[in-house]
Amino acid sequence: MSRLIFLALLAFVRGDNVVRVNFHEDCEGHVNDLIQLNLAATFQYIAKAFHFREYDSEYAGMAAMFHAHAREKLNDAKHLMKYLIHRGAEVHWEDIPKPPNTNWSHPSVVMTQALEIEKNMLNKIIATHTCAQEHNDPDLMHDMANRMIIEEENTIFELGSYISHLAHDGAEDTVVLPHLSEKLFLKYKGYKDCFHAVEPDEYHNHPHDY
Which of 16, 28, 68, 112 sits at 20 to 30 Å (Cα–Cα) from 154? Predict the structure, then answer.
């Protein structure tokens, strides 16, 4: 206990954040990278969602799904920002890159790109977990393993399933595809968009609001 008090006093004298304990700068950098990736993914998913809401796209179910994922990524970014603050670290604000593409030839292309986004995210989460392990940071390891990794694996499985259905159930048929889209994304029916205000009771039921 006396050692912790001494370290806290030393940090205060040096002007450091007295809340920060056992949080390595490398881990802080990884978490900030994850925040940036989640914000960029939010931007890309919003672009994909509105693409499917254009006058020549009849895929309301797919649009709702991407709005839901956009909110999920934004919530993950907010969770990680709060995590840094609680650990006595800082959020490094950077420019968010614009979506690399906003004109897709086919819904399956959009899905494939989304899957790559999630795979890159999972790789970065695993790298962050590895960094925490190397620096003996069980708190960060727990957050990555019990929250972030499981969430990403579920999203990757979901997107992979959609891609498989689109490939085998009439994805090339422009008449069948809109109806298939509505069937596949039925669980997102009624989801308005990622800017829609969430009611208080919805926050209670949403696992990603922190």
Answer: 28
Rounded distance between C-alpha atoms, residue 195 and residue 178, angstroms: 24
Residue bearing tokens 């934004």: 74
What predicted TM-score, i.e. pTM, was given to this entire model? 0.78
CA distance 118 to 181: 21
- Alpha carbons 73 and 86: distance in angstroms, whole number: 20
Distance CA 206, CA 192 (A): 15
* Distance, CA of 157 to CA of 164 (rounded, Å): 11
Superfamily of domain 22-205: Ferritin, core subunit, four-helix bundle (1.20.1260.10)
| 28-68 confidence digits (pLDDT tens) | 999 999 999 999 999 999 999 888 876 555 677 888 889 99
